[in-house]
Amino acid sequence: MARLAYLAFTFLHGVLADLPAGCVTAECFGEHDDGNLLLQRDKKIVVKEKAELLAISELAKTSKKKASRSDSSDFTPEEAATLFFTALALLLVASFIQQRRYINTKDDVQEEGTQRSKRMAKTNMGLALAMEKDSTATVFREENIMLAARAGCALIVASMISFVPQLESWFTSMSYDVTYVGVLVLWTMGRSIGETVSGLWDAVVGTALAFLWIWMLEGVAPNGVHVSDPAERWVYGAVYFAATTLFMMFGTWRNGMRVWCLSYHMGNMMVWLQPVEDGTDDGYSHHFKIKFDGAAFGYIIVTLFAAVVTILALSLPTPRMAHRIALRDMQNSANSLDSIFRSTVKLYFGHTDNASSDLMRCKLFLTRMQEDLVGMKTQIDAAWWEHFDIGVFADIRRGMNKHVIVQQGILECIQSLHECLGGLQNTDATTKLRSQVEPSAESLVESTYELYDTCFKAMENGAIDEEEARDLIQKVGVVEADIEKLSTTFRAAAFDIAGQGFTKQQSVLKSDWQMIFLLCSTSRLIVDMAKEYASRNPRVSVSAVQAVAGFNVFSGVTDPAHLEFAFRNSLSLFACWAIGYTGVFGLLPPYTSGIATNASLLLSTSVGSALKKNMGRVQGLVLGTTVGCLLYGAVISQGCDTTMYYLLGYGMTFFLGAGSFYMFVSTKENSFIFYLFGGFASQRLLAPCASEMTETDLASYFKNILCAIVCVSILAVVDLSLTASAGKTAEAKAVGLAKDVSHCITLLMKDIEPQSAYGKIALRAEMDALEAKAIEGAAEPRLFSQPFNENLYSLLVSKNRSLLIQILTYRWAVRHSASSTLEDATAEMKKGDGKIFPIFDECKIMSSLHDDISQMLDTFICNVESQVCAKTAMDSARATMDATPCYPKVKDQIDLLREEIGPKVDALGAQKEPVDKDISTSIHVIFTVFEAYVKVLEALETESQCIL
């Protein structure tokens, strides 16, 4: 290691010594800031030739103190930089070693609490679920505190290039702007190394693209526009600027690449298009050569430096690896699944003192588990950036993806169980039946979870050997035997209690048929997954080379949402740049690039409310800039060469980084604000030290804040002008969702697989978007219409979610397997049973029932449209006043179909298949779904009229 350190030191010292030196004239450097929040250079820097290194300290009236500090040091700036980068290189090597060691180390999963929770689930489901919730909240809080401390430490290391005089002198001599390094650290740092590396990749690529654009332009037309140049040269540069900006905006780049590229590109093009005197040097690389001591190349160096610092913060002493976090979250999710599954089954068998309260608690717990799956999927995807699917890690990652898909399917089954529990029949007959089948059901629950846990452990190391495969097959046999046993027990009990015949059992035990069907379907999901693991089929990995080769910047340019985003934000960027180029009423001088660079950093692909988004921008950008300036003033108040300066500097840097990052990862509603606040505040705090505050400095701070305000004002005007109000968007989405749900139900009744636009993923996304738009619409001012009816939209979302659950239950019934609803299910699994629909088609009443259900769905659409588009409550009431109720007629048709189809089902004879594969059971479930459709839509119409 000592030999390696010596070689690294010698190499870096030689490289740094060969780089061009700085200048010796004070004219090389101007005022502290010209309003540009990223480029932090006075325009004099780009119009004066550089001379020698020792005159740098004349900046901002601190020459004598900085010179004395440098003279008293044992290191020159070059030596200090060499030592600093060597130390970082060694720490980076150590971090890689730690990552490789830790990636195969098993995390603790709080086993004691988990076992306690499992024991409590057998006796007190409410307490068990509460324990799971408290445990998750504790882990979440502790992890956020730890991440905040790492962010603070990373910012301290990054701030050394501002607070250590020799390092500051070296970076300044190279014209490398360092003040935005805090922005890079805080904006690219994620919850894991994988997430962080993904963000850093965007930053590095974006910075390199910005260098490429100015390097190509300077190669053809060096030194920008001069006073004596013909107008064609300016037009040439403007066209090039517009073309490259539009290429970045309309190309389907990752948004991080777009943000970092354009934030530098705006400033570079402002310098190139600013007319200067003849013979001046703008400081960029000319004639396709690379100027190593130029600001444009310096951004690449500083970005790489910030990348190293951020990776070190998440790697040492214990790495925060997405791979390990995903495995840990999968295990925790499996434990939570055990609790929710047991609790749901206990609710069915009546082991509760307050069924409605415990059912509500289960639903809330299930919702949280579904939200956690999103974060888990994020970490699984981020894990690719840590191991690039090399070796067994491809199998592990694909196995985890499969687990997430199956887990989502299981939660959907449990969600359907909860809906069924809400309308459960409770009679003497049902109580007797449940007491007879309870032992078989509990045995199935035990064997199912044991199989699920075995699947996870077999997948955990990526390689399923023959012994593990045999173990899986054996446990699959146990679960299938328990499904058979429960099916036999339930049929015998149903015959004993309700008698023989489909019609009798449907009238007495219809909800119980659905409960047992869903319970067996849940177990069947895990059986199918275990069989897939046991088959040991090879998986396809995605290497880094394949990922890069597969990237196509033009792949989504025709997407309407992307085109709308690109057009709107391009207009904002060009407006910000044009206003900065001409100046603002004497308050901001011409050629101020800070407005445009701020706009670039604020680019967002979110589709939220324009008003709400821009209010968040104002708070984050303006408050961050203001607080950063205040903290900077406090730090330099004690001078630039005192102990208090370093204590205050490092202390405030740590608390700013840790505090803002903790709020960012801990809050959901305002995380965007704290994200902007931390970045812009650190950018101001890490500015070069001035021995005293001058009027020029104060004017500079005013310019920074004014740039922020002008930038956000332009963004807000463009967004509000080109973006429909959230209220209008919510109206359109509510009607569109009703139409899509109606279309999906109609297709399924005809045994037609809905297209992706009407699939569960698309419908769920529409519901989430409607819910978000309703919240935003309620916050918007409404001057000439009635207040936004947020309660109505909440009701629409709730009822549509219930309809989606019934849609999924219907699909499981006609396809005999919950696997048909999974996104990776085969086409064969998505086909309906060939015997079910012929039975329905033989019924004469089926045609009229189809027509009546279609009419009911049309009424549903009309009701939604009349409610959400009504200008007044009176308009809404009049729209539904003369509507003919269709729900009683549909109920009658369902009863007639039940009577007609009963003999046809009985003619099939005794069933030997498990209930989740049985035709008669499927028909039982289909009837409960038909009745649920009517119940939900009727409740929606009644309740919506009550909240006008």
Can you describe this structure in just a few lines?
With 948 residues, the protein is an all-alpha fold.
Which fold name is given in CATH as the topology of the domain at 726-946? Methane Monooxygenase Hydroxylase, Chain G, domain 1
Low-confidence stretches: 1-72, 109-113
Rg calc: 33 Å
Largest sheet: none
**Number of separate strands:** 0
What is the helix content?
Answer: over 70%
* Separate helix tally: 32
Q: Report how far the terminal alpha carbons are from each other.
A: 75 Å
For the record, the CATH class of the domain at 726-946 is: Mainly Alpha
- Measured by DSSP, the beta-strand proportion falls in under 5%
The CATH architecture of the domain at 726-946 can be given as: Up-down Bundle
The outline comes out as elongated
Average pLDDT figure: 83
Structural class given helices, strands, pairing? mainly alpha
